[in-house]
Amino acid sequence: MKIDFIELAAPDLEAAKKFYGAAFGWTFKDYGGHYADFEGAGISGGFNPQRKPSRDGSLVILYADDLAAAERAVVAAGGEIGAHHEFPGGKRFHFVDPLGNELAVWTKA
């Protein structure tokens, strides 16, 4: 088995699309204003307005070749930067999107 789809909490679909479009260039397919799929994330996924944002659940980690540019894009789009980590093989930063979801972005060393 493999992960096929990721669903992020998005009580405000328009805010979610604005942030992820601006920060990462994702595009979206709307389903009647009650759900939206995102594309361009490397895996299929969607925004679910019925789920509550979380900083304590599973952590979605994105990959970027240029970590500094990704961090600037997150901040410019309205994200809040959290912890920075370095580890054998790479480094990452955590961020909270404007909806309250915590994610991270990593790059190879």
Provide a quick synopsis of the model.
The chain has 109 residues and is α/β, with parallel strands linked by helices.
Description:
It is a single chain. This protein is α/β, with parallel strands linked by helices and 109 residues long. It has one domain (5-108): Roll (2,3-Dihydroxybiphenyl 1,2-Dioxygenase, domain 1). It is built from two helices and eight strands; from the N terminus they run βαββββαβββ. The protein has helices at 13-24, 67-76, and strands at 5-9, 27-30, 36-39, 44-48, 60-63, 80-87, 90-96, 102-108. The strands form two sheets. It has a four-stranded mixed β-sheet with strand order 1-4-3-2, with helices on one face.
How far apart, in Å, are the first and last alpha carbons? 29 Å
Q: Determine the mean pLDDT.
A: 96
Structural class: alpha/beta
Segments where pLDDT lies below 50 for 5+ residues? none
Helix content estimate = 10-25%
CATH class: Alpha Beta
Total count of helical runs of at least 4 residues: 2
> What proportion of the residues form beta strands (DSSP E)?
35-45%
Please write out the topology.
Elements: E1 5-9, H1 13-24, E2 27-30, E3 36-39, E4 44-48, E5 60-63, H2 67-76, E6 80-87, E7 90-96, E8 102-108
Parallel strand pairs: 1-4, 5-8
Antiparallel strand pairs: 2-3, 3-4, 6-7, 7-8
